[in-house]
Amino acid sequence: MNLIVRVTYITIFSFAFSKTSCQPNWKLSRDKEGIRVYLSENPKSKFKSIKVECTLQGTFDKLISVLTDVGHFNNWVYSTKSSYIVKKISPLDFYYYTETFIPWPMSNRDLVIHLKIIKDSLQRFIRITSINENGLMPEKDGKVRVIYFAANWYVTMPTQKTISIVYTIDIDPGGSLPAWLVNSIADKGPYETFKKLSGML
């Protein structure tokens, strides 16, 4: 093997290894009622990454109507105490405030999220991004501001009456919540949320 071939081979192998090594190593944590929740170690955080996969009865339009009805998130988003629109760019692009209930003696968490829904022009899929925007509102007394929140949805319609969802989320809840405790129950909130979302659809 001459030098040029060897260097090319090493370069390709190193690139392939770096790409695969950066991929989350998802492990199934909960599989119930068609909702699968996976967890993965996050090299950038002490809190695990979460992925949900499920196929639910519903349509793109129905899902969008639920996701844009921010004032009723407490009906289906796990432990949501309150939520409301802060700033609207368009019907599918807005900022909202949300407060999550945490049992005493710990404090409730809150944050402002920028939610954006992107519809494929050919109706093949929709993408939804949710990222925290901590500078949009001052912190509130008695509540802990979430340090980091990033969620992504990729939704397709395998049939005219069903939607297939792949949802991923990374979050740092801030404060003094121990990572081991958060990680030990990390699959509960997503499962309960998508179970109730199924009912909303």
Describe the structure using short key phrases.
10 strands, alpha+beta, 201 residues, disordered N terminus, 10-stranded mixed beta sheet
Average pLDDT, rounded to a whole number, is 88
Q: What overall form do the CA principal axes indicate?
A: globular
Secondary-structure element sequence? HEEEHEEEEEEEHH
According to DSSP, the number of beta strands is: 10
| pLDDT < 50 stretches | 3-21
Q: How far do the termini sit from each other?
A: 60 Å
Decide which structural class fits the backbone: alpha+beta
Please compute the radius of gyration using only Cα atoms: 19 Å
Q: What helical percentage do the residues reach?
A: 10-25%
Please give the largest β-sheet. Answer: 10 strands, mixed
Number of helices: 4
Please report which band the strand proportion falls in: under 5%, 5-15%, 15-25%, 25-35%, 35-45% or over 45%.
35-45%
